[in-house]
Amino acid sequence: MTLRLGYLTPKQKIIWDLKSRGQQEASIARKLNVTRQTIHSVLDTANIKIGDALQEVAEINKIEVETLDPNRGFLKGYSNHFKTQAFVTFSAKNGVQLWYKHEGDCEKCNKLDACRAALLAEAKDRNFLLLDDTSKILPSKLAEALFAKITGE
Questions:
Q1: What pLDDT is recorded for position 76?
Q2: Residue 134 pLDDT
Q3: What is the pLDDT of residue 111?
């Protein structure tokens, strides 16, 4: 149980992931052969842990929190140091991630493919379809689409 993994146990991580992918608590309970109340209790504990992890990353990075939603695994805030929006996300596959909004020159960056891959992995883990042809979209534009979906804006 580490900060990167949202302090979740393996069982909590599995149950939170199933719920975050849209499965109902009763369905998860049947699948795991436990009661719905057990699933509800595990999710309550998992959401508290995820919220704590998201807030801890924000605090460590001096991000002013604007919105926190552990159920959906995100925190939206502002970095005074970098003078930009910041997002802290949690997904079962990618763990806790910190993202800063910026308008960099993605085409000249040597991390273009790595950034694109990280954003697409986050979108895939959340079952989000961003755009048809993501291979030509700059990471800054992918990030805008991803975070708009995560936050529901």
A1: 97
A2: 66
A3: 87
Query: What are the tokens at 15?
Result: 């149950």
**DSSP state letters, 123-140:** HHHTT----S-GGGS-HH
The partner residues of 97 in beta bridges, in order of sequence, read: 89
In angstroms, the CA 35 to CA 37 distance is: 5
**Whole-structure pTM value:** 0.88
- CA pair distance 32, 51, nearest whole angstrom: 25
| Beta strands 74-79; 95-100: pairing state | unpaired
pLDDT (0 to 100) of residue 138: 83
CB 63 within 8 A of CB 124: no
Measured CA angle at 151 (ends 81, 46), to 5 deg: 90
Read off the tokens for 23: 């499965």
Cα–Cα distance measured from residue 89 to residue 84, given in angstroms and rounded to the nearest whole number: 16
Low-confidence ranges of the chain (pLDDT < 70): 1, 130-135
For 104, which DSSP code? -
The Cα–Cα gap between 122 and 125 comes to: 5
Q: Cβ distance 83 to 118 under 8 Å?
A: no
SS3 category, 111: coil
Q: How far is the C-alpha of 142 from the C-alpha of 115, rounded, in Å? A: 10
